[in-house]
Amino acid sequence: MGRSIDPDQIGFDPARLARIDEHFGRYVDDGRLAGWQVVVTRRGEIAHSSTYGLRDVEAGAPVEADTLWRIYSMTKPVTSVAAMMLWEEGRFELTDEISRWLPEFADLRVYSKGSALKPYTVPAVEPIRVWHLLTHTSGLTYGFMQTSVVDTIYRAAGYDLHPPADVDLATACQAFGELPLLFQPGTAWGYSVATDVLGRLVEVVSGQSLDDLLADRIFRPLGMTDTHWWAEGDAADRLAALYAPDPRTGRAIRFDKLGALAYEKPRLLSGGGGLLSTAADYHRFTQMLLRGGELDGVRLLGPRTVRFMTRNHLPGGRDLETLSAGGFAETTLEGIGFGLGFAVVDNPVPSRVPSSVGEYYWGGVASTAFWVDPVEEVTALLFTQLMPSSTYPLRPQLRQLVYSALVD
Predict the structure, then answer these.
(1) Residue 394's Cα: distance from chain center in Å?
(2) Residue that is last in its domain, among 179, 206, 233
(3) Splitting the chain (408 residues) into consecutive groups of 10 residues, what average pLDDT does each group show?
(4) Same domain, 55 and 114
(5) Helix (H, G, I), strand (E, B) or coil at 17
(6) What residue numbers bound the domain in which 337 lies?
(7) CB atoms closer than 10 angstroms to residue 103
(8) Most buried residue among 159, 250, 251, 333 by CB atoms closer than 10 A?
(9) Do 36 and 185 fall into the same domain?
(10) What is the CA radius of gyration of the chain?
C-alpha cells in the first residue's frame, strides 16, 4: 500500500487519529462487528492504517493487511470509470440513447398504478440515456429494496439481492428492458441496477467482456492485483466471512447463504456489485481519482473528466432528498448530489456530518465505504463485512473522527 508518514507532517493529530481504533474497536469487542480495516491518507501519504478483530470469527482468523473484502456497490465507481474512459475515446456521448447499443431498452413502459400482478403502465416519454445510468436517474430499480410495486415485480422476475443462478449480464438486461420503470427517465433518483446495465453497455461498445475490460484497462495498469470477481486458492483463504446482525442480540452472525457466492465464478458479471478487493488495491483506485485520473505515471482519465464526473449532475442541481424515489441508498440524502458514478457533497450541513463541498464517495451493502476529498486532499477507506450497511452509522462516525483529527 505504501509507506506511512508521521501524521503531524500532513496536518493530522496522531492522538486524535487514535480515536478511530478506540471507537471502532468497541464494535468488535461487544460483538457487533467481526473485524474491520481503516486507511486514511492525505496528499497521497498514509496517515493512519489499522486493522482490528477477525476476518473469520469461526476460524479464529484475524483481519490482516491483505484481507479480501466483498466491496459490492463500491464496484459501481470502477465500472463508471471504465465507461468514462470509453467516453474519452469518443465511443459515445452521455446524451446518447442506450437503445442504440441495447435495443431491449427501445420501447420502455413506466409504472403508473395498480398492483404487481396487474400493473398499469404508460409509455416512457424520454429514452434512457447514458448519463441516466451513471446518475441513477434511469427509472430502473432494485428488487431487494421492497419499497415499491416495481420492486415487487423485479423480485417476481427473480431479481432480488442476487440474480437467478442461470442468468448472465446480457440476459439480465433483456429482462430489465421488459420490466416497467419506476419513474420517467431523468425525473427522479432511484438506486438501481443501472450500473449493471452500464456494464453491459461497456461490453457492447468495447467488444470486450466486462471482466476483461476492467482487468486490461484499470486493474493491471493500476497494479490492483487483488481485485477479482471471485476468490479461489490463496485468495479464498484471505476472504473475510460475511455477517449480519442477530435480530435478538445485535451480535454479528455468519451469513453464508450470500457470503458463499464469492467463492464461485459468477455467471453474471455485476458492474454494480460484483467485485472483491483489498484495502491496498482500492487505495490505489482512490489515489488515481484524487490525482485527477493518474497514478505512478499511468493515466486512466483526464483531470477535467474526473472533475466533471464529480460534480452534481442531478436535474436542476437538486439534492437526493428532493429527487429520491424512496428505498435504500448507500448515503444520506439532504445536501447530497450525484455525479457520474459517485455521490457528491453539495452542502455538508443538512446531514450534520463534517465533509468538504465537492467530496465524493460511495459504499457497499456489507458496510464498506470510501471517500475522496479533493479540497483537503484526504481519502478514507473502511472495510468490514456486515449486511446491511444501514445497521450502524459507521460511515458518518468515521467522518467525525477523521475530520476532527485534521488540525492544520
Answers:
(1) 15
(2) 206
(3) 81 97 98 98 96 97 98 98 98 98 97 93 97 98 90 93 90 97 97 97 98 98 98 96 95 95 96 97 98 98 98 96 88 95 96 95 97 98 96 95 97
(4) no
(5) helix
(6) 7-81+209-404
(7) 11
(8) 159
(9) no
(10) 20
Residue with cell 505504501: 2
Q: Are residues 62 and 100 in the same domain?
A: no
Residue (of 102, 152, 104, 110) closest to 130 by Cα position: 102
- Which of these three, 206, 239, 254, is where a domain ends? 206
C-alpha pair distances (Å), 24 with each of 12, 54, 61, 162: 19, 13, 18, 29
Nearest to 18 by CA among 52, 58, 61: 52
CA–CA–CA angle 386, 395, 41 (5° rounding): 110
Q: Are residues 238 and 183 in the same domain?
A: no
Let me know: does 200 contact 173? Beta carbons within 8 Å: yes
Q: pLDDT digit string (tens) for 341-371?
A: 999 999 999 999 999 999 999 999 999 999 9
2 within a domain of the structure (yes/no): no
What total of structural domains would you count in the chain?
2
Task: State the DSSP string of 155-209.
Answer: HHTT-SSS--TT--HHHHHHHHHHSPBSS-TTSSB---THHHHHHHHHHHHHTS-
pLDDT digits (tens, 9 = 90+) for 183-216: 999 999 999 999 999 999 999 999 999 999 999 9
Omega before 388 within 30 of 0, i.e. cis: yes
Q: Does residue 221 share a domain with residue 165?
A: no
DSSP state of 374: T
CA separation for the pair 47, 5 (Å, rounded): 6
Q: Which residues contact 43 (CB under 8 A, 6 or more apart)?
A: 10, 377
DSSP reduced 3-state for 294: strand
pLDDT per residue over 3-29, tens digit each? 677 999 999 999 999 999 999 999 999
Other C-beta atoms closer than 10 Å to the C-beta of 305 total 18
Q: Cell match 486490461: residue?
A: 216
| Beta bridge partners of residue 50, listed in sequence order | 38
One domain, residues 237 and 191: no
Residues 300 and 349 grouped into a single domain: yes
